[in-house]
């Protein structure tokens, strides 16, 4: 379930169980409904797909400083190689190799397919004549929603920026 702040800003992904608890405690409201209802022994309720918190929750703005993971790099780069555009055999590449003084941070790591990674090897981009299609950057906080759920349900798309870029991911 996609969780929106009171300001309709996407902030998290949670399980159906957590969403139902928030709804039953009146801490959230259903914005988009799922296809099938939820049933208990004595009650039927709509399955939430998107919920909105009723009170604003302050979200730390340094979410982009989260640990760098392969999935987060892939999500940031649209699940495609930054050298050739392939979506197969993805791995990560240091644009400036660590052996040449490159750092392991968001601004030096890109998604790369295995063949491009092998071809670039331990060379600088100019030496290998391989430059990333987009310069690596710190991701927006919304990337971590795509990491939590690589397949974005249709009900979430209106609430996420650039959701179409990740719609067919994974």
Automatic annotation (TrEMBL):
InterPro entries: HNH_5, HNH_nuc, NA-targeting_endonuclease. Residues 68-118 form the HNH nuclease domain. CDD domains: HNHc. Keywords: Endonuclease, Hydrolase, Nuclease. GO terms for molecular function: endonuclease activity; nucleic acid binding; zinc ion binding. Pfam families: HNH_5 (PF14279). Gene3D superfamilies: 1.10.30.50. This is HNH endonuclease. It comes from Paraconexibacter algicola.
């Amino acid at each position: 379930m996609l969780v929106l702040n009171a300001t309709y800003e996407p902030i998290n992904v949670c399980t159906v169980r957590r969403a139902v608890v928030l709804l039953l405690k009146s801490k959230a409201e259903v914005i988009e409904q799922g296809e099938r209802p939820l049933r208990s022994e004595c009650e039927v309720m709509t399955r939430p797909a998107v919920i909105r918190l009723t009170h604003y929750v302050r979200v730390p703005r340094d979410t982009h400083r989260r640990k760098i993971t392969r999935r987060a790099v892939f999500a940031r780069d649209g699940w495609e190689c930054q050298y050739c555009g392939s979506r197969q055999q993805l791995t990560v590449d240091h644009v400036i190799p660590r052996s040449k003084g490159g750092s392991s941070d968001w601004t030096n790591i890109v998604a790369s397919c295995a063949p491009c990674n092998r071809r670039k090897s331990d060379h600088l981009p100019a030496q290998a004549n391989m430059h990333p299609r987009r310069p690596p950057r710190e991701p927006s906080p919304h990337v971590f929603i795509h990491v939590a759920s690589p397949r974005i349900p249709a009900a979430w798309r209106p609430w996420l920026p650039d959701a179409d870029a990740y719609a067919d991911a994974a």
